[in-house]
Amino acid sequence: MPSSLTPGRRPPVVPSEDAHSSEYIARCDARREFICGFSGSAGCAVVTRDKAAMATDGRYFNQAGRQLDANWELLKQGLPDVPTWQEWAAQQSAGGKVVAVDPTLLSSATAKKLGEKIKQHGGADLVPVAENLVDLVWSEGRPARTPAPVKLLPAEFSGKDTKTKLAELREELKKKKAPGFVVSVLDEIAWLFNLRGSDIPYNPVFFSYAVVTSAGGAWLFVDPSKLGGDCRKYLEENGVTVRPYETLFDEVRALSVSGPAAAGPGDQPNGDKGPPQGATKVLMSTRGSWALKLALGGDAAVDEIRSPVGDAKAIKNATELEGMRRCHIRDGAALIEYFAWLEDQLLNAKAELDEVAVAGKLEQLRSKHEHYVGLSFDTISSTGAK
């Protein structure tokens, strides 16, 4: 029952996202689905001692209505007089209660607004909890993280080495007189270091954080066992130090203790002259977690900005543009072959085909082409009453 989740009077918030603000997540991070049964990609659950609510948007009203049982109230976001999950949580806090959340799963901006709403409704506060309350319940059958290796993206596809990307990022940091930037969004890290992974289905990313300083330091926090010799050599050649993924928060806490003008975690690389003169606060993305901001020292030590890595990633270089063109040509050829096959099957062979069979055929035709890695998402198709 939902009430078994939390002792005392602490309604916990259970978002869909993982610690990196990912919309699409690994199975081990599907906490919201585990606790309420709803498997859509967008939604947020809130559980109190005696009631529970799950909010989602119009894409998923029917699905959520089927998957939620009688323990749950469905908050249909966007409909008149339906509270948001933030408003619902704040309402439950009335009378001096606190609302609990795993701070790694909520952005700093969202946490701040939610805390304000809670107080407006007579609640005590939003509090971070060190141990995720759903994880305490999800003790059996929880999927493990994938052991899949990280791969190096060749220069023929990236068009720019990591050393150059880091130099350009440091120029942006110096313009802002910032000592460093903490990168937490997975696709930004994959782009910045020219690495690819498969920790999340259909997404070429791997669990990681990064710290880049204006003074010359760069640290990639990742499971070292995932890095082969070619990745390690590439990172070393590009001035990147590898740290274990799980040490990120301890190391940035040490950074915050040494002051916002500290150049970076751990030992400094040769030639690191320290932060720029007049440096003030460490930077993090507005998509970064509340836990990350707290570890870095909070408002006094951190500025949240639109990610300069995300902006740089959005501006494709000539190699990336040509790669996209060639990719679309290859996929267009596969689609033409598929349509020809489908027409022959329906008109000439008089075959009876179902959606699974035709989706499998299209994937098979795509997989024949050069540089095929996999699908970008599960095939979405349906027809009929069921």
Instruction: Identify the CATH class of the largest domain.
Output: Alpha Beta
The CATH superfamily of the largest domain is known as Creatinase/prolidase N-terminal domain
Tell me, what's the shape? flat
In total, how many beta strands? 14
Average pLDDT: 90
Architecture of the largest domain in CATH? 3-Layer(aba) Sandwich
Explain what the structure shows.
This protein is of the alpha/beta class and 386 residues long. The protein folds into three domains: 2-137, Creatinase/prolidase N-terminal domain (Creatine Amidinohydrolase, Chain A, domain 1); 151-314, Creatine Amidinohydrolase, Chain A, domain 1, CATH 3.40.350.10; 318-367. The chain has 14 helices and 14 strands. The chain has helices at residues 31-36, 61-67, 85-92, 108-120, 133-137, 155-158, 162-175, 186-192, 229-237, 248-258, 290-296, 308-314, 318-348, 355-367, and strands at residues 12-15, 44-47, 52-56, 72-76, 98-101, 125-128, 151-152, 180-183, 195-196, 208-213, 218-222, 241-243, 282-285, 302-305. The strands form three sheets. A six-stranded mixed beta sheet has the order 4-3-2-1-5-6, sandwiched between helices. It has a six-stranded mixed beta sheet with strand order 12-11-10-8-13-14. A two-stranded antiparallel sheet has the order 7-9. β10 (208-213) and β11 (218-222) form a beta hairpin. α4 (108-120) packs across α11 (290-296) and α10 (248-258) packs across α11. The longest helix has 31 residues, at 318-348. The two termini are 30 Å apart.
